[in-house]
Amino acid sequence: MDDLLSEKEQLEQIRSWWSEYGGYVIGGLGLGIAVLAGNNYYQNSKLEAQLEGSAMYESLTRHVVSGSLEEAEVVASELGEKYADTSYAAQAKLAMARLYMDKNRDQDAIDVLSELLANPADEAIKNVARARLARLLPTRANRRRSSISSKARRVRHLPRFTTSCLAMPITLSAVLKMRRQRISAYYLTQ
User: Fold this and answer.
1) Which end of the chain has fewer beta carbons closer than 10 Å to its terminal beta carbon, N or C?
2) Number of Cβ within a 10 Å radius of residue 98
């Protein structure tokens, strides 16, 4: 008995194996090629979307720098609709808030920054939005206070805060100190 097979027998074994498993081999190769092609298509479409978002954000920054509010609002809304899940939408809101601040439309800037803080975004961008919002709120309070008539400002019980007072962090010791000063001032006037 010869353990070595002749070429005809080897060829016959290969043909029988191919007839049994050949369909699976071809199907596996086809599936592998389809997965690679699909992955390449997905990556290319994702890259194209990022490039389009980048181009839109670049045009938005040009409008913000030039100060053209109407064009910037159109581009920012389109950027927010098409690319809401990218960081370009959040950065567009920051840019629009800056433009609103430059145009003295503080309430619009506050609205845009509040919307940015309410939506999911990167924490670094949210921290910038919080800082800008903190900068806007005291100035808004000062403008509202300056619109009060001079007669109402003379009323003694209305608080007269300055910007630095509103921006000052209040600690428990500062509150207790102010309370002691008020109590001592009350007893001195009695």
Assistant:
1) N
2) 16
Q: Which pTM does this prediction carry?
A: 0.55
Structure tokens at 36: 């690679």
Spatial contact of 153 and 160, defined as CB atoms under 8 Å apart: yes
Each residue's pLDDT tens digit, 38-53: 999 999 988 888 888 8
Structure confidence by residue, pLDDT tens digits, 163-183: 334 444 456 666 667 777 777
- Residue 82's CB is within 10 A of a number of other CB atoms, namely 15
138: left (phi over 0), alpha (psi -120 to 50) or beta: alpha
Closest of 189, 187, 91 to residue 132, by C-alpha: 91
170 CB-near residues (< 8 Å, 6+ apart): none
CA atoms within 13 A on the CB side of 115: 17
Going by C-alpha positions, the residue among 119, 186, 109, 112 that lies closest to residue 140 is: 109
Where do the structural domains in the chain lie, given as residue ranges? 22-146
- Of 165, 103, 173, nearest to 137 by C-alpha is 165
**Token pair recorded at residue 139:** 């100035």
For domain 22-146, the CATH architecture is: Alpha Horseshoe (1.25)
Q: Which candidate, 74, 118, 81, 119, places its Cα nearest to that of 96?
A: 74
DSSP state of 4: S
Do 138 and 164 touch, CB atoms closer than 8 A? no
